[in-house]
Amino acid sequence: MIRVGGGRYRGRELAVPSYLEVPTKEVVRMAMMNAVQFLLPGASVLDVFAGSGALGIEAISRGAEGATFLEKEAEGVRTIEENLRRLGIKEGKVIQGDALRSLASLSGSFRIAFVDPPYKERGLYREACRLLLAGGLIEEGGRILLEYEGDFPVSGIRPLREKRHGRTSFAIIGKV
Q1: pLDDT tens per residue, range 117-163
Q2: Which of 11, 49, 68, 126 has its CA 20 to 30 A from that of 113?
Q3: Which pLDDT score, from 0 to 100, does residue 22 have?
Q4: Would you say 44 and 64 are in contact if contact means Cβ atoms under 8 Å apart?
């Protein structure tokens, strides 16, 4: 179990699927939310490779209008749905399937997208960013937040900001 770190659901527990090796640490989630806090009120959020749904739920807790969760694993989908149900969140939409295929067929636009694939799958970062930016899924002025270990995982893109917390880093990519 992990806990929501801020907002209206602060302190509430979230279940984590058993296959998730390292859920996003609270200190990293808090830093990510603080970095985009001015964009959260009323935002539509996309949680790609959602796992437990913690990033999207944290965003809703802090004022986002709603979140779409993309998750391939059935256990992850059940976990996200259970977390939303337990918190009474109705503003969440869970899509089961391969994240990249889901991104390629998704419509609408999002102010914030969280991209947190398995750290070893470096190519997923590049392809997810390409689909988000080229597919018009990020609104003007919107942001993509990548969580990763090691060096910045996307060549050809310069992040607006990078922050390291132990072995984990996150970067913000802007759509301007």
Answers
A1: 988 898 999 999 999 998 899 999 999 999 999 999 999 899 999 99
A2: 11
A3: 66
A4: yes
Label residue 17 left, alpha or beta by phi (over 0 means left) and psi (-120 to 50 means alpha): beta
In sequence order, what DSSP letters do the residues of the chain get, joined into one string? -EE--SGGGTT-EE---TT-SSPPPHHHHHHHHHHTTTT-TT-EEEEET-TT-HHHHHHHHTT-SEEEEEE-SHHHHHHHHHHHHHHT--SEEEEES-HHHHHHH--S-EEEEEE---TT-HHHHHHHHHHHHHTT-EEEEEEEEEEEESS-S-TT---SEEEEETTEEEEEEE--
